[in-house]
Write a structure and sequence with these properties.
16 helices; 7-stranded mixed β-sheet; alpha/beta; 31 strands
């Protein structure tokens, strides 16, 4: 060691936590450039240019998020990086299927560029389902297998994004077979999405090479998938005590990852990012040492980032100094590539342009940050992709539900929602029809989807499962085609909320009565904002509060509204073309069986 130049940093006084053995032990951590150059007994002679006092703290590896969507924070990549680095998340695999459904390859290229100048390792998966279900909805873009094959060659891209149309995969659909096939030929990671898929269908899905799942499953299905080697990625709604108990009762605990999937900016500021998911996992009954491994080593292995995930010599110096007990997962100081990037929950770095990528993850990952500069000029984080909401001004007449039915009472197919998750089930409701128009006001809540890309698609359906006061919510943040969705109790309220969203160039608005009570402008593709994180968090919280006050009670109000259009998520969804029976993967009409 004396023959080498001095170390750049010595972190002393702390306890290193091993993600391999679960042990904590006293050690000094040495850093040279962006790598850990030594983990030594305290006080071992070694010259260092700078010192960092970690007394009373635990030194852990940086957290790795193996499945998430930056757009779900409503933030652009650079703003997202600053917010989440402060919570210990030093590496993410981002699937930008929200913005890519809006604006295609151009949007993905910008996402890569926008994150290139941050100290956070942002790696990328090419969205596999644009649109989410071909033939059942209209998005702003459509990606063929050839398009995806080309995008998979971009620097920074290491995966095929979640294969959501699992019914098409199981059914042997040619387009999905070709999409998965080009990714397999390139040796890419294949990210999955298959809620409660089981038995022969699960085997058929796994046989294609897709080998992970982050969706909510029944406990017995979690075990079935883990038993077959499918990597389970547990997000907050999956972390139930019965799931933790079942996993811990297995003869061998299978590797699994903790992921965020979708977290809004206000949630991150108030509760945290992966650190929050870790605390939820501990409360569910998972030991803190197991949780740490699921935040670090397991996801690093999944992403083939063999240079991180453990505090050890030769590994990348992505480190989180934690206060108190490990189970608290309370980041005090965060280092990325040996550089202090956050203290006490706030970023402390300035953007300096593209930074180096991981040192040992293949050529694509090795120059992930700045890689997009090989394709186009680096544009920083200026607001791009605006003006994407192409829809007429919103008036109450646009919420008249016109049908070709005779006067009288008819039975209509309805969507029933719940307050726990995003599962929707089919129900029925009787409504009168007069003069070719459904007389729904005062009788039922209505949901309308309006195509926002200059096309004619407009679909209505009754919505059950909520007791709402007078009002409405409208949004263009609606998975995954991001058309304009409006839910309300009157035409006037729906028009007020929808018109606010259109005027903002996209976003979310809530009306109480016929007056807008809260709005979150998302002018970047109708799904993100260039504003600062505290501003977005403030507006997000106002919208969340307004939704709850209206009566839309849910563990995650944003997700419960925005997934009504997700035509791959069971069981009845609505798109700009029709209601969709997700299980049968078929459009269904508004009219139910006549009584």
């Amino acid at each position: 060691m004396t023959s080498q130049r001095p170390h750049d940093l010595r972190i002393s006084g702390g306890q290193v936590v091993s993600s391999f053995t679960g042990e904590s032990f006293a050690a000094d951590v040495l850093v040279r450039d962006d790598m850990i150059s030594g983990v030594l007994p305290p006080g071992t002679p070694a010259e260092a240019r700078a010192h960092l006092d970690a007394s009373g703290m635990l030194v852990a590896p940086g957290f790795v998020d193996a499945h998430m969507h930056i757009e779900s924070s409503f933030l652009t990549p650079q703003t997202f990086a600053a917010l989440t680095l402060a919570r210990g998340t030093t590496t993410v695999l981002a699937d930008p299927h929200e913005i890519v459904n809006v604006a295609g390859a151009e949007a993905m290229r910008w996402m890569i560029e926008a994150g290139a100048g941050t100290p956070q390792t942002q790696l990328w998966g090419v969205p596999s389902c644009v649109p989410a279900v071909e033939g059942l909805e209209d998005a702003g873009a459509s990606l063929s297998a050839a398009d995806i094959d080309e995008m998979l060659s971009w620097p920074g891209v290491i995966a095929l994004g979640e294969v959501m149309d699992y019914r098409a995969v199981v059914g042997g659909d040619r387009r999905m077979r070709d999409v998965v096939g080009v990714a397999r030929e390139r040796g890419m990671i294949l990210d999955g999405h298959c809620p409660n898929l089981s038995g022969a269908d699960l085997s058929a899905y796994l046989a294609t090479g897709v080998d992970s799942d982050h969706t909510k499953n029944r406990t017995e299905v979690v075990l079935e998938k883990a038993r077959l080697g499918m990597l389970m990625m547990l997000q907050e709604k999956c972390l139930l005590p019965e799931v933790a108990e079942a996993l811990l009762a297995l003869p061998t605990l299978p590797p699994f990852c903790l992921v965020t999937d979708d977290l809004a900016a206000d949630h991150i500021l108030a509760h945290g990012h992966l650190d929050h998911i870790a605390r939820v996992a501990v409360r569910a009954g998972l030991p803190a040492e197991v949780v740490l491994r699921a935040l670090t080593w397991n996801p690093a292995q999944r992403l083939r980032l063999y240079d991180r995930g453990v505090v050890a010599p030769g590994k990348r110096a992505d480190l989180v100094l934690l206060r108190g007990e490990l189970a608290a997962f309370d980041p005090a100081v965060v280092l990325s590539g040996g550089r202090v990037v956050a203290r006490d929950g706030a970023a402390v770095y300035e953007e300096t342009g593209p930074v180096a990528g991981p040192a040992d993850a293949g050529d694509r990952a090795a120059h992930h940050n700045g890689g997009a500069a090989d394709h186009a000029d680096h544009h920083g984080d200026a607001a791009p992709l605006t003006g994407t909401v192409d829809v007429e001004p919103q008036h109450p007449d646009g919420f008249r539900w016109r049908v070709e039915l005779p006067d009288g009472t008819h039975r209509f197919r309805a969507m029933r929602v719940n307050s726990r998750d995003t599962y929707t089930e089919e129900a029925e409701v009787e409504l009168p029809v007069r003069g070719g128009e459904v007389d729904w006001e005062g009788r039922v809540t209505l949901v309308r989807v309006r195509n926002r890309y200059g096309r004619a698609g407009t679909v209505f359906a009754p919505l059950l499962g909520r007791t709402l006061s007078a009002g409405a919510v409208a949004t263009t943040y609606a998975h995954d085609s991001h058309n304009l969705v409006t839910i309300g109790t009157s035409r006037a309220a729906m028009a007020a909320a929808a018109d606010a969203v259109v005027a903002d160039g996209g976003g979310v608005a809530v009306a109480h009565g016929a007056q807008v009570a809260a709005r979150l402008p998302l002018p970047v593709g109708g799904v993100m904002s260039p504003a600062a994180a505290p501003e977005i968090a403030r507006r997000s919280e106002e919208v969340r509060t307004a939704l709850t006050a209206w009566g839309w009670d849910h563990l995650n109000p944003f997700m419960s509204v925005s997934t009504l259009t997700l035509a791959v998520s069971p069981s009845l969804k609505i798109t700009d073309r029709s209601l969709v029976d997700v299980v049968r993967r078929e459009p269904v009409g508004a009219l139910a069986t006549e009584g």
